[in-house]
Specification:
The protein is mostly beta strands. It has one helix and 15 strands; from the N terminus they run ββββαβββββββββββ.
Length: 213
Amino acid sequence: MLPKNCKEIIDGWKIRTDEISNGVYRIEVEDKIGRRCEVTTLDPDAGVEQCKQYALNIEQQIKDRIALFNPWNFSNKSPQNYSHDKSHRIVYHDLHEIGQGSPLTGKAYMVDDLDRTKLINSHAAGLPIWDSSKNTVAIPIWTKTLLRGTVQRIAIIDSTNNEIRIFKKVFDVIQFLTFENETLTFIEDPLRKKKEIHFDIEIEKLHETRILV
C-alpha cells in the first residue's frame, strides 16, 4: 500500500513517483482497496498521465455499471452474472419487486458450464459480483429482522468448494462496485447516494455457513 503522504491524483487515488535510477522513474497509483497501476518510464509526466488514465478508466467502468444495472433493474442478460472464466454464472428466476417501487427479489441459482444448477437463495437481490481473481461470487440476499424489518445480507459463494457464507451485518439496499483482495466495495441505498462501504470478508462476522447443493 502506498504511504499516506502520497499525492492524491483523483478522488480516492494516490500517486507516488520515484527515481529508481538515473533518469528512470517508477510511477505508482493505488486506491483504497488496492487496485493498482505501476509504470516504469523515462518520461515522468507521461507516466503520471498513464497512471491517471488507468484510475479514470476504472472509475468510469463503475459509473457505467451503476447506470446500466442496479437493484431495481437487472436480469440474466447482465454480463456481471458470469465468472471471469465463464465457467459459472448466476441465473435468476421469478424476479419481482419486493414491494411497490422497491428493488427486485427472486430465486438465484449457481449454474456451471455443464448446466448443473444449484439454488443459492429464494430471496436473492442483485446484482452479483465476482472476485477479480477466482470463481467466488457475492450476492445480496433479503432477510427479515425483528428491529429493522426486511434488509439485506451479503452471501459469498465459492463455486469450487460449493460453499456459501452469509454474513451477519445487515444493510438497506446493496449495489456492488468491486470485489478485489477479499474486499467488497459497494454503495448502500444507491438512490440516496450514500458513500462507498468497504467490506472485508476476512474479518466480518458470519451469520451462517453451509454447503451449496
